[in-house]
Amino acid sequence: MAEPLQESSTNRERNKFIEEIRSVQASAQAEKAPSPLAEYYIEQLKAGLHACTAGLGTGMWRTAIYLLGDGKSYYRLSSLWRGIFSGEKSLPEPIRVWDCNDVSNLAETWALSDTEGSKGPGDFRHLFQHLSLLTSSQLAAYIHLPQLESPGFSVHGVAAFDTVPQPVKDGRSLDIGTITHFGRDTSQPYRITTSALTQHAFVAGVTGSGKTHTILSLLKQTPALEVPFLVIEPAKAEYRSLMDEPSLKAAIRVFTLGDEQISPFRLNPFEVIGWPSVSVGVHIDLLRSVFGASFGMWTPLPQVLEQCLHRIYRDRGWDITTNSNSRLDKNSRVGDAFPTLSELAAKVDEVVKELGHPAEISDNIRAALHTRIDGLRAGGKGCMLDVQNSMPMNFLMEYPTVVELQAMGDDDDKAFAIALLLARLYEYRRASHEVRSLRHLLVIEEAHRILTNVGTRKSQWEADPRGKAVETFANLISEIRAYGQGVIVADQIPMKLAPEVIKNTNLKIIHRVVAADDREVLAGATAMDERQTRALATLTLGQAVVFSEGDDTPIMVRVAPPSNDERLPGSNDEHIIGPTDEDVRLHMLAQKEKEWREDIGETLRQRLKQHVARLSPLDIAASIAHDAGRSLCADPNFRRDLVRLVTSMIKCDESIERLWADLKYRQQAFSRSDIDSAAVLRSALTQASKWYAYRRASQGGWSYSEAAEVERMLSEVLLSQIDGQDPASPLASFRALIYELSERAIEPFPRCWEICANHTCLYRNAVDDFIEGRKNEDLEGVFNRAYVTDVRTTGRIAAAPKAPTEEPPKAQRKATWEILDEASNELLERRLQNTEEATRIRLCYAQHMLASKFVEVHKQIIGELLDTKGR
Fold it and tell me: Which of 97-106, 411-420, 536-545 is predicted least confidently?
């Protein structure tokens, strides 16, 4: 215990030392003989004089140390005390311990003993008997803070951080937190301008360090700045808590990717956002990067995939070189012109076969690509990704939006979805003009899933498709800042991230980071010294080190804790939870109903209806029926029966009634007791109408508006039959449209005009599909062998009869016609096999079988078949 001594008392004590020294020196000189004892006494007095002189400058303290203990511990404590604080410089007197029974009372009352000191060997007398007079520097030796911890007493090191940030001149700014000085909050906030966020931000911290809450705190400030945001959340569902924020509740959207029962999402990977400003060629390159960054792609998978991508766009009428589509007219919707995942999956076999690799290599390539692509078409992922039209991008970018990926269990699938969203955002921004101010904020949680640190190439000769893809997306993030797009990248383990992410982000917010390699990387990017780097491992919940442009060294801040009605992510307040799945479902249902009520235009309204979450109990049943119908529509046997029905009813009205049972039979194979079979068939036929229309449009070069009209009319015919209505009228309209669209301007094969004299090609595309469906069979070889058999049996036909009255040639082509019967049986019902339409289909099939022969041979054989119809 210490109490300041008045300066006058210190001065009097100093004078007492001076007088005592003079007196002793005078006595020693009077004796005129050496006196070692006097010399030693003077040295001690000088030490006291020196202390008093120093005390006049720095302050003097009357000090007492109270040592309390029982009979054993007291003596040990007093001995230990003297051993620690005594030494050669314990002058003018060594440390002594006075035993006093009343010391406990003095300690309890925080009192000092005022007993006057006893007389010394000379005239000098201590001011206090049981108190020591110490200078400030001497007193400091008693109050050193502990350097080591002991049971019940902890020691925390605190690094020195800057406390003065760069002034924020722009009024549009976000508060990150309150600046702290040696662990204590100051009144000064750390602010970052919105324009600075276009240079992007990186938030790091281990699980439970407050990383998510920091980002939530920033997002809650965006409504006042009219800056929408998009959060991509791969693993958890914490950002849906923003639904409870009053300023966000009315506008926020939450989508659960892969979970069809809460808030479904639709995303066609092949849709080019912002076309024609963004070319199809650029989108194909981005798709290569999407696949490369998401899945392991060994050579030559990336090259094969690229060929497949080019093919499916070409099949849809796209010219990659000119960035145009010949089938897009003024009445067509651009969204209908893009391919789907199903088309990509179907194209793999075709491309791999054409490459001509050995069988084993071809099988490996085919299996690898199908495994990756078909995995994206399964379950909820298929419902989300294998679609024609996507959720309109402006509905993601113009409102605060949260995209949850926790329903997608596979990390590669999550990476694929994140990469797609990044690519779409990039295209959306490229289609707009450049701006300097912040117009939108993107948050990517667990960014290492797509922006992975893949290391360096082992060899310059070694391909690195994944590294190239990651580099592409890192560059995209850098480029979109020119369009007012800000990005907040968050991750737990900085070393897992591509180095470009840490290097190219302006704002760094670092919560607790434990691993030494992570801390070293962050320290190198934020100008930290060694002590500050070590401090990153001991930050508490909500503490963060911030560094941005203009800061010479990092600044420590404390993010404001959440209010009482919300929980800090990572805390243990389990009784406080965010919105449930049911809350999200109902919220999104209300949002969609609100969107429909708004004046958004009929075209966009129809697109939105395709993305309605089937959320009520009745709608869930409809959703199950829809999914079952989707599976039925994809069944090859069902599609074959549908084509047979459509081809037949174009010729005969009664065919739809006779063949209807075939479709219902196919539907029964997909029936379950818990699914309405009628709803399944209705769903399947609706989807099959679209498939048929766009398949024929692709083959015939119809415009997309014409394809949409075919889809509408065919669906009307089929649904009329389901509903028990007379389909005659819609069938007549459908038939007229098909005839109009099937008119041909050129003859695709020799003597086609003799087969279909009315200049229509009603069956060519259907025959193409028949051949494609049996591509594993040697159809051409079977045809050739049948023809050779006929020639050997009956000889060649020299010439056709000159007039109808002449007898037909004796030579027949019975075996050949039997082979051709397979096509007509496939495409027309049995009752129509003896009609002229069946003969046309057979001859059309023969034209396809002869296409690879010399034209001269082709003409000869097709002429023989025309001369021997049916024989």
Answer: 97-106
